[in-house]
Amino acid sequence: MEIKIIAENIKSIKKIEFDLKIDKGIICITGNNGSGKSTLLTCIAKLVRPSVFKTEFKGMNFDESKITYVSAMGQIITWVKNPTWRMLNEENEKEMFKLKGFYESSLLAGLRFLHLENKNITLTNNNIEHSKKASDFVIENLNYIISGPNNHKFDELYYIRKSKNTQIYFLKDKGITEFEFSTGEYILLSILKIIQTFANRKNQEEIRLLIIDEIEFALHPLAQERLIKKLKEWAEIYNLLIIFATHSLQIIENLDPKYIYYIEKDKIYNPIYPAYITSKLYHHKGYDKIILVEDEKIEKIIFKLIKDILNINLKYKIIPIGGWEKVLEIHKDSLRSKYFGNADIVSILDGDVKREANKEKYKKLQKNFLPIANIEKYFLDKLLYSDNFQRHVEIHLNVNFKDINLEIPSSDLNTKKIKGIYNSYIEQVSKISGKKKYEVEEFMIDYILEKENFESLRNFLMNFLAKGCL
User: Fold this and answer.
1) CB 292 within 8 A of CB 327
2) Which residue among 181, 262, 307, 387 has its CA within the 20 to 30 Å range from the CA of 37?
3) Which of these, 162, 218, 210, lies nearest to 48 by C-alpha position?
């Protein structure tokens, strides 16, 4: 199931489009303050909380706003505010897309502190006697996320049932309630209680949405890292689509680029590499040399080319950005905005974009190119036409080429499909050989470096790194 969301004239957004694929996994929405992260989350939340516009989009500032939902079948539902939020075609009201899930909005407007009215509760012998121990799920994950493995701070976590929907948690051994926890512990507990309801539901086949704004609030960076690791696990185990907004570099750097959506000037970029976002939200300072590349495969090639020539005292960083135009955009912007301080910058791109990348607007940027079109095209050509390559893989990775099933279309072999074929090949070779995917990719990269002439690029990099450092 897929739903396109089009938001117009809402807060800082003039018009933005977002394709929401309803499938288990993680969606991270990020961007600068005021870019529209929370606004987009609210538009998504309409699918699980019908009344959300009344609470999140209220006041006269939304009188020109319009939010449209388009299903894969072409069904269109549009909401406007005049004077209250309503459908343009009210007779379709019962047809609004509805999904099951939970929405936790921004810190001040959300539910995380909704039951703080109970913060003055006093623990008595009576309510402690009738309390129940928290679930293993809550205890184990609080211990792990807050403090890491082999910690037992929350082993004596119990709860008092104040009403049907209100439970007050407390540490029995210390006699303190959740309202005396640190802010990060308190917020994490509220998230775990939500996840627990998803874990305990009877129908695990039906997907559920969990939408959270400011997910990292008040958590230590290492706790953020452990939280995102767990969220990925829970999405898979409990059939969840977890959508959240964050500024946290610790969280962003622990996500695959395909899960990250970056909002800037009413545009959404996906997939996008964490380093690109880092260069926008933060500054890479303290480096002498910066090498911008398109993806992690080129990063590995560059590292192998230069690792044995670096006998000079300098600090360098290779940064994958994601797409040659994004690489050059960051390169160009950095000359003006000093994202990388006073570091020298070079861009290394795929060979098949040489003509486009050398046009006038990029002419002044220092750059060079791989001696091959790109890695995916290179290997597809070898797979189709080189018996020597196939034998090389079979001998060194103990893989029978006949066991690999690749669906190669006879026409319209665009970049996206070529990358899909390459990724499928890597996955199948990994599965058959018993090696990790990164090990198979390392093998492929070593093959390229052995068979193709990278001497010119290597010399270029040597001169770039040595310039000003001798």
Assistant:
1) yes
2) 181
3) 210
Question: What is the Cβ-side half-sphere exposure of residue 363, based on CA atoms within 13 angstroms?
Answer: 3
Delineate the domains of the chain, giving CATH numbers in brackets: 2-111+203-269 (3.40.50.300), 116-194 (no CATH), 283-371+454-466 (3.40.50), 375-448 (no CATH)
User: What's the predicted TM-score (pTM) here?
Assistant: 0.67
- CA atoms lying within 13 Å on the CB side of residue 116: 11
pLDDT tens per residue, range 375-428: 988 988 888 788 888 888 888 888 887 888 877 766 777 777 888 888 888 888
Residue among 103, 67, 45, 106 nearest 246 (CA): 106
Interval 232-289: pLDDT, tens = 999 999 999 999 998 888 888 888 888 999 998 889 988 887 777 776 666 566 688 8
Burial label for 397, CB within 10 Å (0-12, 13-18, 19+), is: middle
DSSP string over 229-260: HHHHHHHHHTTEEEEEE---HHHHTTS-GGGE
Question: Residue 417: helix, strand or coil by DSSP?
Answer: helix
